[in-house]
Amino acid sequence: MNLSNKNILITGASSGIGYQLSKDLAKEGANLALLARRKNILDDLAEELKSFSTKIITAQCDVTSKESVKNAFDFVKKEFSSIDIAILNSGASFRMSIEEFDTEHLEEIINVNFMGLVYCLNEIIPEFIKRKDGCIVGISSLSDSRGFPRSAAYCSSKAAASIFLESIRIELKKYNVKVITVKPGFVKTPMTDKNEFRMPFLMNVEKASKIILNGIKKEKNIIQFPLPTVWGAKLLKILPDSLFNYFSNLPLPSKK
Fold first, then answer.
1. Over pLDDT 70: what percentage of the chain?
2. Residue 39 has pLDDT above 70, yes or no
3. CA-to-CA distance for 212 and 118, rounded, in angstroms?
4. Phi and psi at residue 60, in whole multiples of 5°?
5. Which of 8, 15, 149, 160 is most buried as measured by Cβ atoms within 10 A of its Cβ?
6. 7-248 has which CATH code?
């Protein structure tokens, strides 16, 4: 898939993977619609990228609000004749022990990671079906493999996202709509910087973005990385519960 001159929408474009993808896609010659809650950051990024002579628009969007998502997507559809690729990247993470159980924080993570994805799909799928063309790229995580301690909301929301994307991939194939699931391991971003434990095979965001773009160009169904973490996740998925429970209760190594 050639990304030059494609109209590409990116949610969660104000930081992390979404921010880097925006920069790299501008270099590829794509037209960009950048969405996030922090529009001031998007505007600064658009100003930085205008030298690449592509069309770049920005819109404030809170993916947890169905109305906000609709308004942002309506704006993009008005500015662009069509959306070719939708990269649904918004994500949130908050580690919480069972003693700190708090539905407010749990709802926020689930709403961003899963319902936010669904709200965006609600705005883009009908257009793609009607046109019989389009590409959906959903950012999930290798954490979808098991339920890790202190990460119940994150793991379950990413597992829901992965399964949802897999399901619609099958249904949308007959309409020539591609659905790509991206499953990163640990990538150095402002979100993972909050983690207090040492993250194995931590990858810089520039390399992660390059892998994702290469996977999109090759139209892969699943883009997952880095390889050691991919194999680790596959092993954990088939590990007997007794062994998984044992290893999960071991203390995490500090990154200090």
1. 99
2. yes
3. 21
4. -75, 135
5. 8
6. 3.40.50.720
